[in-house]
Amino acid sequence: MSAQYEVVIGLEVHAELKTDTKIFCSCPTEFGGEENTHVCPVCLGLPGVLPVLNKKVLEYAVRAGLALNCEIASFSKFDRKNYFYPDLPKAYQISQYDLPICKKGYLEIEVNGRKKTIGITRVHMEEDAGKLVHGGATIATSRYSLVDYNRTGVPLIEIVSEPDMRSAEEARAYMEKLKAILEYTGVSDVRMEQGSLRCDANISLRPMGAKEFGTKTEIKNLNSFRALQKAIEYEIERQRDILEEGGKIIQETRSWDEGKGVTVSLRSKEEAHDYRYFPDPDLVPVVIDPQWVQEIRDSLPELPDAKRERLVQEMGLSEYDAGIITGSRALADFFDQVVAEYNEPKTVANWIMGEFLRLLNANNLEVAESKVKPRSLAALLKAQAEGTISGKMAKTVFEEMFETGKEPETIIKEKGMVQISDEGALAAVVEKVIAANPQSVEDYKAGKEKAIGFLVGQVMKETKGQANPGLVNKLLKDKLG
Amino acid sequence: MKITVKDVEHVALLARLDLTEQDKEKYTQSLNAILEYMEKLNQIDTSNVEPTAHVLPLKNVFREDKLHRTMDKELVLANAPEEEDGCFKVPRIV
Amino acid sequence: MDLYKKTAHELSSLLQKREVSSEELTRSVLDRINKVEEKVKAFVTVTGEQALEQAREIDEKRARGEAMSPLAGIPMAMKDNICTKGVTTTCASKILYNFVPPYNATVTEKLLEAGTILLGKCNMDEFAMGSSNENSGFFPTRNPHDLSAVPGGSSGGAAAAVAADEAVFTLGSDTGGSIRQPAAFCGVVGLKPTYGYVPRYGLIAYASSLDQIGPLTKDITDCALVLNVIAGHDPKDSTSAPVEVPDFTRYLVDDVKGLKIGIPKEYMGEGIDPRIAAYLKQAAAKLEELGAVCEEVSLPHTEYALPAYYIIASAEASSNLARYDGVRYGLRVEAEDVISMFCKTRSQGFGEEVKRRIMLGTYALSSGYYDAYYLKALKVRTLIKRDFDQAFLKYDCLLTPTSPTTAFKFGEKVNDPLAMYLSDVCTIPINLAGVPGLSLPFGTVEGLPVGIQFIGKPFGEGTLLRVGYALEQNTDLTKPKAQMEGVI
User: In the prediction, which pLDDT does A272 show?
Assistant: First the structure.
């Protein structure tokens, strides 16, 4: 007989901010680059250097906080989090401890048609650490490691949720919504695969109805939605098994082994954790002007929930389609721009959800990397609507647009793909086909409706597919009475 | 508050210092003498006093989000005790 | 013409009149270093060749008629915790024995721009932690007035170099008295500016909220000239005050009429050598004679400054010194794994006093003790600052001894950390309050210089220079150098 457990999940998400320079120095934040080339005395933590806050970091943190419905602190400061690690040049991370820039926010998720509000405890600013490259296959088997400080000092916001999630699906939905919101506000690239969006999950179980939280474990560095969901699902089962066998959960940090599909303990030596936070004496407090906050609030774009609502209410899209399209700002913007030129939202949505996403996924591309511009897609859809090309042709043209970035008009012209909609020109071909296929004509006249399909096909063949099929159909029916 | 050799060991671990047995004794003694002197602070009531972390009333010191030249690569690694492939090399982590 | 003995302002006029060249002058000082350094040991590094090269460049510029700052061509030295690009900067610690900064401190930039000649880097207590120079990781500097006495600390090398004419002036740093106490012990002028007045960028941090760079000079006029170069806002230092800097030479007037000077009674009691107290009264009498008003004042929280200071400074130090881990620069002691490498490097690289303060600071910040120690100390700091705010409502500046005693003997306090800490009792409150403090030589006791300290309002350096200048003009007690002849 297994007891019923309630799952309690909270997420700590780190998002890299999309500034040009680091949080406390003027080095580039650009991803990649040769090792240790995006560094200066400040981010290398050389003796004697001092940090100066990048104003854009503060602006972006406030922007993200507002989009997440947070209160913006009027007085905020930076603290040092002290711990030793080779990728942390000063042996402390400049972060925010008791006075974060934003707190008490929330966002809304929807799982299986049920809406739920997830609380956000706080959003604070901090600096990223460097990168360790291990000499062996894993950290545990490496005899040495190499340190690259290019990432050191890249600005981060850490977004801490309340322990409000009750399943892996909810956690995933939260993460997807958070990603969309951060993308909409333009503060982060939110590329999980490049590490510009990272997630740690805190998971515990408690008997149904219990008030006290159970002992939690923390799973570090979940770098895809899939990993997030799988790791949480695994961890829930692992904890459930232990509890059902009468065991105890050990509070610890674990990591997700993608290959084996398991979480593993990261506990190494018995180690004292005491970060000894204290106000960084090299930095001065931040005092926020409410008018500045208002300016940032006014400059926020339409956020995913509002946009989705608008697509459903005003454009008649289904909840599902609107959800997919607004799930990423790039896609939503693309949609908006196509609709601005070709005001048939449903058709546009079908094309985006169908051909466009299919080709993007097949080629593993982001919306921004697409060679097809919204204006070009609109032009293609217009050509189809006006009967210049057929629906089938349109798909062929789109594939080429996607591949080459050429305008639809150019492709249509190059391929001589213009649809023949001239009755006079088609009448002769229709006559010829009728003359050449007496059997089919007879069949049709005898009531076999299907026979007309064969005749239309013959006309299309004669015209190399350029005939307007609707018109051919009409002409044939007219001729055959 | 008397601190013990055990406290000194804990603090040394946090501060990443290796202490000999003799060091531990010595530091326990001198830290106790100093901390005893610090007890003097408890003579004053500070319950209604704000802490001073900064003497100057400075706030909102920022820089613009503008790129500056990074360091020459030779200089980055010039002081490195050990390097490899443009990186700082360290012994195994765990 | 013993050029090395002269002050910067005397030399400046000789250089401007082209009666001497900077090369000549630099050679004179380098010769002096060669002659006395074996006894004084004020330098960790002497950059003789570079200095001469720099001097020749300055001479060429002058020959071309280029505009020159008043300090152009003057040889100086810097405490070895101020970063100098391409010149080893060690903090007198084994852990940084080979560190060559790839960048200049802002003050280094400013001094080089002004055309001063860098002679080398001065010895100090390791990471500026100490009051006698006995904590140098390399060797102790000796007091040029008595080689068996300490030069004070932590800027002991910088003070001794000026006293022994091994540099025309030097820069030191002062966290709890580290410029003023050695200035007093060595009989030179030492100024700790208002916190935030002189950029800290490139000063290797001991305690960030207290550290301040300042000049050690042969007289008040030189102090004003050096301050003119190094003070001013620095966008690289978030704690740098965004204020206009005056020309400090305009305070060099022999006039203290109507100036109100407070003498805090807490600095005149138990523990103060009565002969020093007597000199202080003599100085007050002189100032009254010149038209100032001197009155007793009270700074009631003075006795709490020392414990508060050692908590705050050690806490900040425990974090500031965590970066010395053997990964990017400095000493590395090889070990199997990274944690052992950290521990071995730090244990062997740091000296005993540095380790003591790191542990004290780590303890004060650690979980469960933060409120009792660190937070409490920050609150006491508020009270100490208030004492000064109150006093400055009524007084233009305050007058105290710089140190309770004159220079003590080597070994006298080194095994008793608390006794050593107490030698900073008169200077520490000034750092906690962030106000400026000037130590001026005033007489000698048994051949060893006495220093008196003037404390000013925030950014009130001008008043301190004015009082010091007036005393220099009106009494020879401010020039204790004669006593030094024969020792070195």
Answer: 56
Residues of chain B contacting C325 with CB distance shorter than 8 Å? 16
The answer to whether residues A224 and A307 belong to one domain is: no
Same structural domain, A234 and A326: no
Confidence at residue A268, expressed as pLDDT on a 0 to 100 scale = 52
Give per-residue pLDDT as tens, A285-309: 999 999 999 999 999 999 999 999 9
Look at B65 and A274 and tell me if their CB atoms are within 8 Å.
no
Partner residue opposite B84 with nearest CB, options A21, A38, A146: A146
Does residue B25 lie within any of the structural domains?
A: yes
Residues of chain B positioned with their CB less than 8 A from the CB of A144: 89-92
CB contact under 8 A, C99 and B82: no
Class of domain C3-249: alpha beta
Using CA atoms, how far residue C403 sits from C178, C271, C377, C470, in Å, is: 11, 10, 23, 22
For range C233-257, the mean pLDDT: 97
**pLDDT at A270 exceeding the cut of 50:** no
Contact C251, C454 (CB under 8 A): no
Query: Over the stretch B27-36, which tens digit does the pLDDT of each residue have?
Result: 999 999 999 9
pLDDT tens digits, residue range C200-227?
Answer: 999 999 999 999 999 999 999 999 999 9
The distance from CA B83 to its chain's CA centroid, rounded to whole angstroms, is: 26
Same domain, A316 and A454: no
Domain count, chain B: 1
Residue B24 belongs to domain with CATH number: 1.10.20.60
Q: What is the widest separation between alpha-carbon atoms in chain A?
A: 98
Asked whether residue A380 falls in the same domain as residue A428, the answer is no
Q: pLDDT over 70 for what percent of chain C?
A: 99
Half-sphere exposure of A340 (CA within 13 A, CB side): 10
A361 against C463, higher pLDDT: C463
CB-based contact, A82 to chain C, within 8 Å: yes
Chain-wide mean pLDDT for chain C? 96
Assess whether the previous peptide bond of B47 is cis (omega < 30° from 0). Answer: no
A271: nearest Cα among B13, C437, C428: B13
Q: Mean pLDDT across chain A, nearest whole number?
A: 91
Residue-level pLDDT at A137:
78
Are A278 and C369 in contact, with CB atoms under 8 Å apart? no
CA–CA distance, C60 with C54 (Å, rounded to integer): 10
What's the whole-number mean pLDDT along residues A361-378?
90
* End position of a domain, from candidates A292, A320, A345: A292
Least confidently predicted of A379-388, C96-105, C141-150, C298-307? A379-388
Res. A1: pLDDT tops 60: no
Cβ <8 Å between C102 and B75? yes
Average pLDDT of the residues in C165-193 = 98
For C87-233, where are the alpha helices, taking DSSP H only? 106-113, 156-163, 180-186, 220-230
Q: What average pLDDT does range C159-165 have in this prediction?
A: 97
CA distances in angstroms from A161 to A9, A106, A201, A383, C251, listed in the order given:
9, 8, 10, 49, 59
Q: Given B59, B62, B70, which is nearest A37 (Cβ)?
A: B70
Domain membership of residue A355 as a residue range: 302-415
Angle at C103 between CA C98 and CA C107, to 5 degrees: 110
Alpha helices in C17-68 (DSSP H): 22-40, 48-63
Q: Is the pLDDT of residue A480 over 60?
A: yes
Q: Is residue B56 part of a domain?
A: no
Instruction: Name the domain count of chain A.
Output: 3
Annotated catalytic residue C154? yes
Which residues lie closer than 8 Å to C32 by C-beta, 6 or more apart? C4, C164, C165, C166
State whether A245 and A130 are in the same domain.
Answer: yes
Picking from A369, A386, A415, the residue at the C-terminal end of a domain is A415
Statement to judge: residues A145 and A163 lie in one domain: yes
Question: Which chains contact A through at least 3 pairs of Cβ atoms less than 8 Å apart?
Answer: B, C
Q: Where are the domains of chain C?
A: 3-249
